[in-house]
């Protein structure tokens, strides 16, 4: 059970048509239950203690922010899904739509740089969010930058702009602005979402009529992160619409759809701002934490040496931080180590956005756009998400099988590695088929005979549907991994550093993008089998030391009020 509820617990009576809410005594300040309430609790308590913890009812503000976040993801995938083709292929005459014709290697490098900026830039947004402006204001500012970038991409993708050479400079400018905007959103929106569930206590007993259940905070936050992950994957289906529009109309139409969806996000957050929960900023906590960290760094990164007592005893001086700052730093660094260790997981994931799209383009497409294949990933997440959330997780809890956050992330890394191994196998099959073998689309025989297709080149003789399983395997890994990473980043982080820790998750993805850039020499034919094999190996190998090093964290809980870890 999320928290032990004992017979001497204090009771708070609430007006819910006969409902009763029982909370831990430590969370109430001097509220004493009356005799009638004590009698009700005494009657229901034995039954309650036998019940499994459950998910609490979510306030409306959680759903508002979740829907706004889903609209942002709808916009993001509408803008980003066509980018690989937009950059890689020329206008007309190719097996896939295109605009700039810069080739796969350049397209992949630009894609990785785009992702890298998204993953590195959250840090300054997180700092100003936690210290000064709060998550809501920082989120709105980020959305404004994001909207400007999407407008530039829309305007410079128009045929008249491409004809006048505005395509590439417009793309670079738009990618920078969009990446910065996305960075701010990623640093602030996930913690802002969980902020909306602001119940401070860990467990609540609710009695309504004859029904009793225990609402557990940890399970509720796990549900919120999984629910948001499911909604964002539903929104990611916009990639299906955008890639179809890109082929049937043009790229500018796809980008117009993204621009409109992003505007919906801005409207939702702005007009509901008074209904949303805004946590107080922590002011000087972060600067003091940085000073304490610098002090620890000068003493061989020993936080104990930076403590007030140690500084007074060793150096005869007082410091402006207290033991709470040191404890928060210790906890933050532990969480950051967990997040940074998941870099190989992110490296495998970002293949969805570039190389797997290009791989589909090397196969027989049967008339569908190659970048449409990526839509099967969110479809798989939508289908499998409820099965895992409502089926697998409860089954494991009832069976007593430990499946905490660290085990879930370890399993996600292993499954992600399996997906990359399958992708390597698909690439090997592509290279073993004609007409171009290890040089897909590049041999004279790839030219389509008249009447064979409306396109200009033909992939190797293997159906694109062979690639299908990779999207479903990736989906299982994402469901286990991404929602859990968000859960850890919020629940384990101290109150004054939640946005900073969330930004570190993006920094980890940035590290993965750097690794992707380092692998760019083999991101081309005929060495793509090696690329996928290396990524598969890194991801699988990382899963075992990750679990071994951090496994004890699955047996600790964090008090939501003090942020202290408890066994």
UniProtKB/TrEMBL annotation:
The chain crosses the membrane at residues 140-162, 168-189, 227-245, 251-272, 334-353, 373-393, 405-425, 468-488, 500-523, 529-550. One of its GO terms (molecular function) is transmembrane transporter activity. The keyword Ligase does not apply. Signal peptide: none annotated. Gene3D superfamilies: MFS general substrate transporter like domains (1.20.1250.20). SUPFAM superfamilies: MFS general substrate transporter (SSF103473). One of its GO terms (cellular component) is membrane. Belongs to the major facilitator superfamily. Proton-dependent oligopeptide transporter (POT/PTR) (TC 2.A.17) family. This is Proton-dependent oligopeptide transporter family, MFS transporter superfamily.
């Amino acid at each position: 059970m999320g928290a032990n509820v004992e017979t001497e617990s204090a009771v708070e009576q609430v007006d819910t048509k006969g409902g009763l809410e029982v909370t831990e005594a430590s969370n109430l300040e001097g509220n004493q239950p009356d005799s009638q309430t004590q009698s009700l609790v005494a009657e229901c308590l034995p039954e309650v203690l036998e019940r499994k913890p459950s998910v609490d009812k979510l306030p409306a503000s959680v759903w508002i922010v979740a829907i706004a976040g889903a609209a942002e993801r709808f916009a993001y995938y509408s803008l980003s899904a066509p980018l690989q083709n937009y950059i890689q292929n020329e206008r007309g005459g190719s097996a896939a739509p295109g605009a700039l014709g810069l080739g796969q290697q350049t397209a992949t490098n630009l894609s990785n740089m785009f992702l890298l900026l998204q993953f590195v830039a959250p840090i300054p947004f997180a700092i100003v969010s936690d210290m000064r402006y709060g998550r809501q204001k920082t989120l709105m500012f980020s959305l404004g930058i994001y909207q400007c970038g999407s407008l530039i991409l829309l305007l410079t993708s128009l045929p008249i702009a491409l004809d006048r050479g505005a395509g590439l400079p417009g793309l670079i400018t738009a990618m920078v602005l969009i990446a910065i905007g996305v960075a701010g959103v990623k640093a602030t929106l996930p913690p802002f979402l969980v902020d909306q569930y602001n119940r401070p206590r860990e467990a609540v007993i609710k009695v309504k009529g004859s029904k009793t259940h225990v609402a557990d905070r940890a399970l509720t936050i796990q549900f919120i992160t999984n629910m948001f992950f499911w909604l964002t994957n539903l929104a990611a289906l916009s990639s299906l619409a955008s890639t179809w529009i890109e082929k049937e109309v043009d790229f500018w139409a796809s980008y117009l759809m993204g621009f409109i969806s992003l505007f919906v996000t801005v409207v939702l957050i702005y007009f509901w701002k008074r209904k949303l929960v805004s946590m107080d900023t922590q002011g000087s906590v972060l600067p003091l934490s940085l000073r304490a960290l610098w002090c620890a760094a000068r003493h061989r990164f020993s936080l104990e040496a930076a403590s007030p007592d140690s500084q007074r005893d060793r150096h005869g001086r007082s410091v402006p931080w207290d033991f709470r700052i040191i404890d928060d730093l210790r906890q933050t660094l532990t969480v950051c180590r967990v997040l940074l260790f998941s870099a190989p997981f992110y490296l495998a994931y970002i293949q969805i956005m570039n190389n797997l799209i290009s791989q589909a383009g090397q196969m027989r497409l049967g008339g569908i756009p190659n970048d449409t294949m990526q839509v099967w990933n969110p479809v798989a997440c939508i289908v499998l998400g409820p099965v895992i959330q409502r089926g697998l997780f409860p089954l494991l809890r009832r069976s007593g099988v430990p499946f905490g956050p660290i085990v879930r992330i370890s399993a996600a890394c292993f499954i992600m590695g399996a997906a990359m191994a399958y992708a390597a196998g698909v690439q090997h099959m592509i290279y073993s088929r004609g007409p171009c073998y290890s040089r897909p689309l590049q041999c004279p025989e790839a030219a389509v005979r008249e009447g064979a297709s409306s396109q200009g080149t033909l992939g190797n003789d293997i159906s694109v549907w062979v690639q299908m399983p990779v999207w479903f395997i990736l989906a299982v890994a994402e469901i286990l991994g991404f929602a859990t990473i968000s859960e850890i980043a919020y629940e384990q982080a101290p109150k004054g550093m939640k946005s900073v820790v969330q930004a570190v998750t993006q920094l980890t993805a940035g590290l993965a993008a750097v690794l992707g850039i380092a692998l760019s020499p083999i991101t081309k034919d005929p060495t793509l089998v090696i690329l996928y094999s290396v990524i598969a190996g890194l991801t699988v190998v990382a899963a075992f030391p990750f679990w071994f090093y951090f496994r004890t964290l699955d047996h600790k809980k964090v008090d939501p009020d003090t942020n202290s870890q408890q066994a």
